[in-house]
Amino acid sequence: MAKRIKIPEIYHDTMSQAIDAAIEYAESKGYGVMTEEESGIIWEPIGYETYQTKLYHIYKENIVSKKCLNISLYRMPSGKYELTTYIN
Predict the structure, then answer these.
(1) Quick one: which of 16, 43, 47, 76 has the fewest CB in 10 Å?
(2) Other C-beta atoms within 10 Å of 47: how many?
(3) Which of 34-38, 45-49, 57-61 has the lowest mean pLDDT?
(4) Domain assignment of residue 44, yes or no
(5) Residue 13 neighbours by CB under 8 Å, 6+ apart
């Protein structure tokens, strides 16, 4: 039987919940995700009705992939975060 891929929720109450959901998505596809420190990522606070996008380095079987985990967050007027994530 094929492995089930977890589709992440789109709307989250906090930025960290949204980022965690994106990382879980990549892990469900068999990738490991480098930490923010390893990838050199710094998330800045997101103002209302603005976007922020970051690329996380990913690996499979301890080999760094040429692909990245793309995480885009949009903070809605309600204060919730909309997550768009994919591996490219």
Answers:
(1) 47
(2) 8
(3) 34-38
(4) yes
(5) 80, 81
